[in-house]
Each structure stands twice: as C-alpha cells, then as structure tokens.
Amino acid sequence: MKKLIYLLGIVVTFSACDDSFLDTAPNDALSPSTFWKSKKDLDLALTGCYNGFADGGDLMYRDSGSDNAYNNFPWEGWTNIGNGNLSPADPGASYYNFGTINRCNEFLANVDNATTVSEEDRAIYKAQVRFIRAYRYYILTTSYGDVPLIEQNFATPEEAKVPRDPQEVIRTFIEEELTTVIGMLPDSYPGDEYGKATKGAAQALLMRYFLYFKEYDKALSTAKSISGYALNATFEGLFDPANEQNEEVILSIQHTADNYSLDFTPFMPNGLGGWSSVVPTQSLVDAFEMANGKTIQEALTAGEYDPNNPYVNRDPRLRASVVYSGQVFANKVYRSVEDTSPDYYNKADNASKTGYNFKKYTTFLDLNPSSPYWNMGNDIYIFRYAEVLLTIAEAKIELGTIDSEVYDALDAVRLRAGMPAVDRAKYADQASLRTLLRNERRVEFAMEGLRRDDIIRWNIATDVLNGDLLGTKRGTVLETTQPNGDYNVSLTLPANLVESRQFQSPKNNLLPIPQSAIDKNPMLTPNNPGY
After folding, report:
1. What is the DSSP-derived secondary structure letter of residue 163?
2. Cα(73)–Cα(71) distance, rounded to whole angstroms?
3. E strands of 121-191, at which residues?
4. Residues 88-100, buried b or exposed e (16+ Cβ, 10 A)?
C-alpha cells in the first residue's frame, strides 16, 4: 500500500467531488470508456479510496474529546467536543462527509469494466473497497446516529438531497458488508502492498462494531476468530518506526517521509518547537497504576505513593505514553512544572496547558533527537491485537462468564507492558473486573482514538467529562535521579486548572449534523436531539 500512496497527487481527479455534501463525482471525472480498463487503473482508483479513509493525526486528536486529553486551540476542532460546547454552527471536528464513500461507490460501479483483470482479483479489489465504505459508515453512525445510506452515487446534486436513514439500517448494512468481505479478503498481501485491508482488518472492525453496540456474544465470537497475530515483545517497541510492521498490527495508516508524511509538530512540546495542540490530562496520568499493580489511591494509603513525586515506580506505559516533568525526552530534561521553563503552562501559547505532552508515537526522538518530526513516516495503528485480547476479556466480563480466559487475556496485555498479572483474589467478580478492564483499555490505548467511544458506550461520559480539567501540580525538578534516568520532582504548588467541562447525556453522545450540510440538504433535518 505504501507504494500506491505515492500516486496520491494523481488521485485528485478521482476525488473530484464535494466531500461536505452528497454530490456524486462529475460524470466526466473518470470515464468508463477511457479509464476503467487495466490493473493500473484499478490500483490508482483503489488508492483514491484508501486516501483519507482514516487519518493518523485525527486518531491522535480524537482523545481530546475524552477525559484523556485537551485540545488547546479551538480552531482545530476538538476543544468544544471535549468541553461539550457544540452546536450545528460550530460542530467541531466534523466527520460528516461522504467523499470517501463517493469514491468507493464510483469504484464499485466501474471495477468490472476492467475485464483484463481476473475476476478473482477484481473480487479482492471490491472487498477492500466495501471494507473502506463500511469503516466510513461505522464512523458516521457512531458519530451522528442516523445518516443517509448511499450505495450508488447520484447523477445530480438535486438528487442527492436525501433524508437520513435510521441507525438500524446503517448497522444492518455495516454488519452484512463486513460479514461478506471477511470471506473474500486475503490473510495478507505481498510486502509492497502492506497496509491494505485484510481478513483480520474486517474481523477487527466487526468486533469493534459489536462491542460498541453491546452485542457481547458476537463481539466475543468475532474476536476469537481472529488469528495470525500476536503481541509485540514490548509495549514501547510497538511505536518504534523501525518496527511498525510488527505482528501485533492488524491494520495501520501508512505514511512515508517526503511523500505522504506525518507532521508531529502539534504533539511536540513548545521547548522542542512543537505546538502542544493535544496534551494529556492529569486524570489520564493518574489512571496508570503503580508498578506493583496497586492504584495510586491504594498505594497512597499504603505509604507507597508520594503525590509530590508521583512518577516513581509507575506502570511502564506511563513513561512510554506521556512526557512528564523530570523525564529525559529527546535528550533534554522536561521541566514544565518550573516557571522558568519554555514548557511552563503560561510561558507561551504553544506550551502545554496541562504540563504534560504525549510521548506515544514520538519515541523516535529518544532514539534520534534530531529526527525531522515535521516529516515522519510513522504508521498509525487502527487495529492491533491487544484490542482483540481486551475485547475477549470485556465481552466475557459483561456476559458474566468469569473464567481463566478473562484473566489470561488481561495478563497477556499487562505482562507484555511489564506489569504484574491480575490479582485474582482482588479482582474476583464482575464489578471489580469491569473496573480493571476499563482502566486497562484506557492506559493501553491512550492517544489511539478509542477512549471517547469507550466512555460513551459505557455510559460514563457524564461522570468523567463534567467538572474541572486539571493539569499537573507545579514545583521543581530535583537533582536526584530514578533508576530509569529520570529526575525526581517536588510538586508542592497547586495544579493547573485548564477548563471546566460539561457533558450532557444523551445529547453529547452524538455530534450535531453541521449546519453547512443542512443548508445544502434541508432533508437532513431534524438534527440530533438537543441540537
């Protein structure tokens, strides 16, 4: 797939439609009589379908709509999703576009014209495109509920003024499409086509779909049907660009430096030239357990946790996911808690307002501090095998089937991270295991775009997205060091108060249909409840 991404400049012709509306591509954009003939044509058109079907930067921004992260700049679209101040006129980062779906429909309408390509190969092309279209509809319906189901493009914009279909219709479409293509997609592709949708990718999306809609028995059976993958040896090693095609990855968004690169400037600290657009919350930092498996509250009671020096003996995933004061990152000591630091919260617009920055996916700067972070080729993961294991655990917990398979799945993820196995006496019933599982998903997948959907489907968004959003306490970075080389801190000054948030359920469970889309298509009304 990475090879095909180089063709994106040419793909503009194939993409010649208004992504914000249900317009079909112009009838003369890619004429069946001149274009849809050869394998090269299909490869080019397929690349147009993959282009933008998922966005790596967007997945990393998405945690700002949850209790995991804060988006500092409202014009980037996630501040108001996080604090609940949404409206049709100001809908935040909108997922309401049909550009990829239009391209998929165009592909499916014309692919069989390429008779020089074998029917068997065309079937695989079609299965990939149907997967992409189902993925986009999954994003649309989980974001907006009822949306128009468009399986064939329209001849005119006027014909495209159609009403929203009920979510039940969209759900049936997604489930049927994925169930069908699972039997059509290959297990893998040749190396130069890495990144295309496989059988495992379709199974993983169907698994996630069932979990979101609380069909736990189906989520369990789908998760257990996924094979051929395994956890990477280390958690931190997952995010080393040199290891981006490891055996844990089920599907990832492909990037290549200079050709289709990813700019990490929004995620970097001010002191390194970044913008601190998306930064972790104190709530996320506090979710990481102690290295011995105790929560920080339990460790505080036992005298094993010092809130003034809070980063000692913590879950190793904290250090791999978050840049905190005292940590040596990119060959520099991060000092956001000190008012003389360029990373102090009020020192600059681009300083992190929480006093933290995300580290996940940016560990390349530890390996090479001079890396051009504005032009990186890191692949961003959509599905990885850890999600399969935690889905098995969650589904069985919710079904009330507490057995060794639940513990084995949780243990696999925890032990890989350097954490102890689950204490089976402490976590022995559904309620305690549910709490543990939900926290495990939170810390394992921070900055991977899953948290907002999780807190909504668990019906806890009202609990975790209301009230004050806090950053780190402030203080001093000390001269003494920990065994991992990080410096101890003394945090004795109040925490940063970043903003007050509100989440109204059920209103904010869905995003508003943008007013711009309604202006073009009045048939989209009424908007979602509360908007």
Report:
1. P
2. 6
3. none
4. beebbbbbbbbbb
| Phi-psi map region of 145: left, alpha, beta (phi>0 left; psi -120 to 50 alpha) | left
C-alpha dihedral, 469 to 472 to 473 to 474, nearest 10°: -130
Taking the model in full, what pTM does it have?
Answer: 0.94
Exposure string of 2-23, with b = 16+ CB inside 10 Å and e = fewer, is bbbbebbeebeebbbbbeebbb
Q: Is 175 left (phi over 0), alpha (psi -120 to 50) or beta?
A: alpha
Q: What pLDDT does residue 31 have?
A: 67
CA distances to 58, 436, 467, 500 from 503, in Å: 21, 24, 9, 10
Distance separating alpha carbons of residues 143 and 163, to the nearest angstrom: 17
Is residue 478 within 8 A of residue 488, CB to CB? The reply is yes
Residues 6 or more apart whose CB falls under 8 angstroms from that of 87 comprise 512, 531
Q: Is 493 helix (H, G, I), strand (E, B) or coil?
A: strand
Of 190, 188, 211, the C-alpha closest to 198 is: 188
Dist CA 129 CA 485 (whole Å): 48
Task: Give CA–CA dist 234/305, Å, rounded.
Answer: 25
Q: Give the model's pLDDT for residue 34.
A: 84
Closest CA to 293 of 485, 445, 426: 426
In the block, which residue shows the tokens 């609380």? Answer: 214
Low-confidence ranges of the chain (pLDDT < 50): 1-28
CB 374 within 8 A of CB 263: yes
DSSP structure string for 30-92: S-TTTTTTSHHHHHHHHHHHHTTTS-HHHHHHGGGGTTTEEES-GGGS-HHHHHT---SSS--
Length of the chain: 531
SS3 (DSSP) at 375: coil
